[in-house]
UniProtKB/TrEMBL annotation:
Belongs to the tetrahydrofolate dehydrogenase/cyclohydrolase family. Homodimer. GO terms for biological process: L-histidine biosynthetic process; methionine biosynthetic process; purine nucleotide biosynthetic process; tetrahydrofolate interconversion. Keywords: Amino-acid biosynthesis, Histidine biosynthesis, Hydrolase, Methionine biosynthesis, Multifunctional enzyme, NADP, One-carbon metabolism, Oxidoreductase, Purine biosynthesis. It comes from Formosa maritima. Catalyzes the oxidation of 5,10-methylenetetrahydrofolate to 5,10-methenyltetrahydrofolate and then the hydrolysis of 5,10-methenyltetrahydrofolate to 10-formyltetrahydrofolate. The lineage of its organism: Bacteria, Pseudomonadati, Bacteroidota, Flavobacteriia, Flavobacteriales. Pathway: One-carbon metabolism; tetrahydrofolate interconversion. This is Bifunctional protein FolD. Its EC number is 1.5.1.5, 3.5.4.9. GO terms for cellular component: cytosol. NADP(+) binds at G164, R165, S166, I234.
């Protein structure tokens, strides 16, 4: 079994980006600037945005965190987005999801300038991705592709099973794995809450990408030998014995499934850190597009 070490690979990527930034500075160019809007004060969201800001500092990017109260109206958020769209100093920005229920997420995502949409959530960019045009690929799927690439995991002709059809992970992942190229050229099955007899499907998979959010959902009995496992789950499970009071738990019963797997991502230290690294990569791309 080979561990797909997202922590290590994301560090390698950050070092590569930091090197690019150093070159920009030497040439007297402006460094990339990422902004993140966070609405509300949900603990998990704050932690994620804080780690994005920290990652910016680490590679030498500028970053701006925009905090808005959880009673923010849709209009107020749309105004803020327009401000960032117009701000020439900002190369890219994200709106941390999920948003409070008074706000229509789809409407908000459509207000982002597609050239600054480093999350790749605007329908224009999602469409480009589906049509193999160059664009911002959503950070988590992009990170998974990068991990598969750097570990030379064969995807061509393999049966990839994606669990979950979210707009952020499952749906884009199912498109990307079936695209021409590498990683890609997989035969893809996408499963969701209405899928019947999921074990019958997962047990035929060469590659399983689980983005469900149900801790320890995928058991050893549901997979075949030498399967490749990508665990996107990051559920906080209460644990009084740990210093933070919770442990981050994946969708995969790691202890048992890892015994059958050829490659597997750990949680934490797998897909999560890759997400952050690829957001930086998209921000670098956004800056290059604009200058
Ligand atoms: N507009 C938007 N873009 C996002 O990219 C986005 C979002 N909204 N909403 C929430 C999800 C979640 N997400 C993660 C980022 C880093 C880790 C990460 O670094 N995880 C560490 C553990 C971190 C910890 O200890 O809490 C790991 O898995 O090793 C996890 C999850 C980005 N998301």
């Amino acid at each position: 079994m080979i561990l797909l070490d997202g922590k290590k690979v994301s560090n390698d990527i950050k070092n590569e980006i930091a090197e690019e930034v150093r070159k920009m500075k030497v040439q007297g160019e402006k460094v990339p600037h990422l902004a993140a809007i966070i609405v509300g004060n949900d603990g998990a969201s704050l932690t994620y945005v804080a780690s994005k800001v920290k990652a910016c500092e680490r590679v030498g990017f500028e970053s701006t965190m925009v905090r808005m109260s959880n009673t923010t109206s849709e209009i107020e958020l749309l105004d803020k987005i327009e401000e960032l769209n117009q701000d020439d100093d900002i190369d890219g920005f994200i709106i941390q999801l999920p948003l409070p229920k008074q706000i229509n997420t789809q409407k908000v995502l459509m207000a982002v300038d597609p050239d600054k949409d480093v999350d790749g959530f605007h329908p224009m960019n999602f469409g480009k991705m589906a049509l193999d045009m160059s664009t911002f690929i959503p950070a988590t799927p992009f990170g998974i592709l990068e991990l598969l690439d750097r570990y030379h995991v064969e995807t061509k002709g393999k049966h990839t099973v994606v669990i979950g059809r979210s707009h952020i992970v499952g749906r884009p992942m199912s498109i990307l794995m079936g695209r021409k190229g590498f990683p890609g050229n997989s035969t893809v099955t996408i499963t969701h809450s209405h899928t019947k007899n999921i074990t019958q499907i997962t047990s035929q998979a060469d590659i399983i990408i689980s983005a469900l959010g149900v801790p320890n959902f995928l058991k050893a009995e549901m997979v075949k030998d030498d399967v490749v496992i990508i665990d996107v789950g990051i559920t906080r499970v209460v644990d009084e014995t740990s210093p933070k009071g919770y442990v981050i738990t994946g969708d995969v019963d790691f202890e048992n499934v890892s015994k059958k797997a050829s490659f597997i991502t750990p949680v934490p230290g797998g897909v999560g850190p890759m997400t952050i690294a690829m957001l930086l990569k998209n921000t670098l791309l956004a800056r290059e597009l604009r200058h």
